[in-house]
Amino acid sequence: MSTKAAIVTGGNSGLGFATAKKLCDNGIKTYIIGRSKEKTEDACKEIGPNAIPVIFDLNDLAGIPAMIENIAKENPIDILVNNAGINLKKEFLDVTDEDFLSIIHTNLLSVFAVSKAVVKNMKENGTGSIINISSMASQYGIPKVIAYSASKGAIESMTRAMAVELAPFGVRVNCVAPGFIKTKMSSTALDNDPERKNKVLGRTPMGFLGEPSDIADAVYYFALSESKYTTGTVLPVDGGNSIGF
Description:
245 residues; Rossmann fold; 46% helix; globular
């Protein structure tokens, strides 16, 4: 049996790291794309021999096809996890056109460019699974994250459009929408703002924050044949937050 190969963008920290670790721990050779050489190589060392660092800035759209082609030469790509993304917290009126464009460039255009390059390879092989990472910010209105919300709403629409167009070629496309997950960044933010923390937990029916491994498990389900009849879906992994009252 040949080893499956995956790409995880932004896999050197947070949810991307947990996802890459889950794939690697289950014998899947995983290329972790990250901007920071040190951070990406350290993450791969921590994960183990199945993790391969790829140092690349996804804002370089023109360089993406060649970067993906180099990976595909080593291994046919079975799984793509579009996880890399940036956020910006600013009042609506303070967001500049440049701010907005920067978020769209990283969170949306790079996902399109990476997916397009990977799909060429998947199409040749007649199989593949793409998992996009969205956010609760696409499910309902959250203040001060207008550009981020726009980018994640577009990711969910793009997931459905890609799923329909790529299904005839054996390529499935799904999306995971994380809720409030316990990471270093979110823990610091919520611990420093008890009112916000109470609001978050108050509208989360399960009453606690998720773990990065919860997202990794959902991605893993979509990555493998257990979900072979599932495409074009958005799965909220949020303890019920998106339907909480």
